[in-house]
Amino acid sequence: MKLVRFFFEGGPHVGVDLPDGGGILYLKAANPALPEDMDQLLAADQATWEAVRAAAEAANPAAVLPRALVPLLAPIPRPRNIYCVGYNYRGHTGDQIDPAYPDVFAKLGDPIIGPEDAIVLPQASQQVDYEAELGVVIGRPGRDLTQAEALEHIAGYTVFNDVSARDWQVRSGQLTLAKSFDTFAPVGPHLVTPDEVGRLDDLIISVHHNDQLTVQASTADMVFPVPLLVSYISQVTELEPGDIIATGTPRKLDAALENQRWLAAGDSLAVSIDRVGTLRNPIVQAGAPA
Question: What is the pTM of this model?
Fold first, then answer.
């Protein structure tokens, strides 16, 4: 299933983006016993998830909204934690030696935005860049998980853009501030359940910066696969429903690296991952008229 949050009749709701352009199933309208928001759904029991699937399969026409009438929101609005992984693709920095352990840092504050929302270039940075990443969303809480247990705790996957201020990134050995400006975590458009995504080691990740293809790589190049990352982080802290793990970005294509362009007002980004979706965001300058 492709789960979504959407805006309708004055507020956010949770639903299913039906296959083949069938519209958005408003879950609460389909079955009043189902959760009204994503946080409740992620924390729900197995019986609730089965009821969601049943509602999606039946897709009562009276509960289906035309896609064009319901703007999509970030599927996970305010995760408790956003864990980001650095240097998780071979060739990301030109080095041929794999790191021994994952390099994990965090995004702080409230940087999440949704599909079609604007990435705002802060006045304090002149070198804002993007990173295309597979986002892992935790469903069941877990601590000290083995790799074999890890996949059972994942609610689904989404597209994550780890927007980064490169000039702030080189100011110290810590990445947190450079990654935590407002709007620096676009996510969406869906939360795709694991059964629909399938294998995680053959997903193509790509980026179009305006009309230029700047990233095209496969998750087969990950140094640390998803089960290892989930297990590794859970050794430190309990993972909770809605937590996001951004699994790292592939290296840009040579042509994009040779002609590096920082994000500029008026630009657009489209980050795509096979079987997960395409996340589109325009770029605006802070202080510019809406």
Answer: 0.96
